[in-house]
Amino acid sequence: ISQQMMAGQNVTTEDIKSARKRAEENQHLSMLESRKQLPIYAYREVLLQAVRDHQVIIMVGETGSGKTTQVPQYLHEVGYSEMGMIGCTQPRRVAAMSVAARVAHEMNTKLGNEVGYSIRFEDCTSEKTKIKYMTDGMLLREFLTEPDLKSYSCMIIDEAHERTLSTDILFGLIKDISRYREDLKIIIASATLDAEKFSEYFDNAPIVKIPGRMFPVDILYTRAPEADYLDAAIVTVLQIHITQPPGDILVFLTGQEEIETAEELLLFRTRGLGSRIRELLIRPIYATLPSERQAQVFEVTPPNSRKVVIGTNIAETSLTIPGICYVIDAGFCKQTNYNPQTGMESLLVTPISQAMANQRAGRAGRTQPGKCFRLYTAWSYKHELDETTIPEIQRTNLGTVVLLMKSLGINDLLHFDFMDPPPEKSLIRALEQLYALGALNDRGELTKLGRRMAEFPLDPMMSKALLASEKYGVSEEVMTVCAMLSVNNTIFYRPKDKAVHADNARLNFARGGGGDHICLLNVYNQWVETNYSTQWTYENFVVMRALKTARDIREQLAGLCDRVEIEKTSNPHNTEGVRKAMCAGFFYNTAKLDSSGAYKTVKQKHTVHIHPSSCLVKLEEMPRWVLYHELAFTSKEYMRQVAPIKAEWLTEIAPHYYKTKDVEDSTTKKMPKLTGRF
Ligand code: ADP
Ligand code: MG
């Protein structure tokens, strides 16, 4: 409108302003209309009545029916927000942010005012906030400062079917406080059929079902197993694009790297298609994607083009992307797996469950009949996929939550009211680990150190490293390392056409041989020295956004360090001190180079490899003893973020875990160069 008016001669800015305002109002009105079209709207009264009549209700409805965006608004509209905030938890950060943005938009307010969100290291709420979306992990931490959640009038535990570790613990805590906070309204929202189980757990709470509008979805399987699902996915996208009627495509892959590869391959292969084929808009979506690019998946596809969204299981139930008619399901997702026997946790590409496969297929039939292409065989679906996904609590390291629960005063963990209890071995392992870290005493009670560790929203190993840094006089440095490690492996980029330059830039940061932790420290410090120069980040192939995130995280860690009275000390040249502090936290994650040239974890003798992205890969001689930040399994079991250490540190720093025989090293003498070097 304003452009048309600009073309005219005698238009005042006032006219333009009021036209713009009218356009915005119209847009807002049509949004209000579309709110009424959602399946949940017909159930508004039923829902509100159930909330009035009961303290806890279970709400079940197909993805896209309006549970997440509408229900908090309904509760707000009828006045619950006058008694306290309306909270809504999400298992994923991206979902919390994007849903909050959507609802702020629907309510015509600025994000962070009436509608806000809170995720780890980022609080976008204010005094005015009435509706607060947050990750389940953040609500868990809120129990530390507000054990009765008194600032809330309603709490929605959303995406309950995902059964994340935090959500499972929240179930127990919420059930517990519901007994003495009779005014707190609780809604457990789920996209699938576990409703009965939730209801039983919450003392037979009533179930409100929101029937979705579902169109039939044709399921197509591959005839033979696919050797390379990524390639199969690309070929399928192109086939759909060339042969099928209009409609957007949603592809499920497992993670950022895969999605980026798929994006590149698709760009490359569509170039050759010529101008007669419609444009294919490629839109990735995964947790660490910058939010302005995340928003692109929701943009309406322009006529004469087709959108293909390539995402992780984030698009399974927590985000609804309009316009999808075709789903391509590779059949895998990334899952943490934990072996309580060995204490090893790793992120594995794992086959999905039948329940997940069905959710994925459902994404194709929201607005019209659709098709789902499964890149696996019908036999495999039937016989190889588990019926449902195992709850995270049964396949993950419990260190963080056990520390949190101990801080909340829950001492008898074995008898905590879990919906599905974790394996006893995992619990015991977590207790042992916290004992080894010094967070618990030999009676399993929280120590002063443990109390300080619990203040940090970090893995206990990382909190311990921070607390230990004081002793080595390097708390400023370790704070930086922890902040950089918390920015998921996204610090460096490596464009294919400038790979050599990028590698050289990176090698410069690794000079001195301190390994990846020190490399990250050098990057950050140099960026600070250049006064946060953008030019400098370009020249050094460092992702500025990642550094800015690290700076924010660092600031918060600094605040928390003040709170637990960690003295701020700095010595940029004491890289050994930094590595010793890291060792004080991560002494479980150590490996030793054996005579065959392979790394084995020190205690369990499990073969592991240095990840190709590590700066240590470039050394002619590998360090004999290393500490790693985490294990990731792709084609091999890889250690990510690796630092050389000395064997004697282990007995010095963690004497209750390492005995002299563990670190005896008959071959050290044969490799004299190394001792000099590190
Ligand atoms: P549920 O929680 O039941 O899965 P949601 O409340 O998330 O459903 O979504 C309801 C509807 O709101 C979706 O069908 C979609 O049309 C719309 N919607 C949600 N988020 C966005 C967004 N960011 N942009 C555009 N539309 C959205
Ligand atoms: Mg939802």
From TrEMBL:
Residues 48-211 form the Helicase ATP-binding domain. It is found in: Nucleus. It catalyses: ATP + H2O = ADP + phosphate + H(+). Its main location: nucleus. Residues 236-409 form the Helicase C-terminal domain. GO terms for cellular component: catalytic step 2 spliceosome; U2-type catalytic step 1 spliceosome. GO terms for molecular function: ATP binding; hydrolase activity; RNA binding; RNA helicase activity. This is RNA helicase. It is an enzyme of class 3 (hydrolase). Its EC number is 3.6.4.13. Keywords: ATP-binding, Coiled coil, Helicase, Hydrolase, mRNA processing, mRNA splicing, Nucleotide-binding, Nucleus. GO terms for biological process: mRNA processing; RNA splicing. It comes from Thraustotheca clavata.
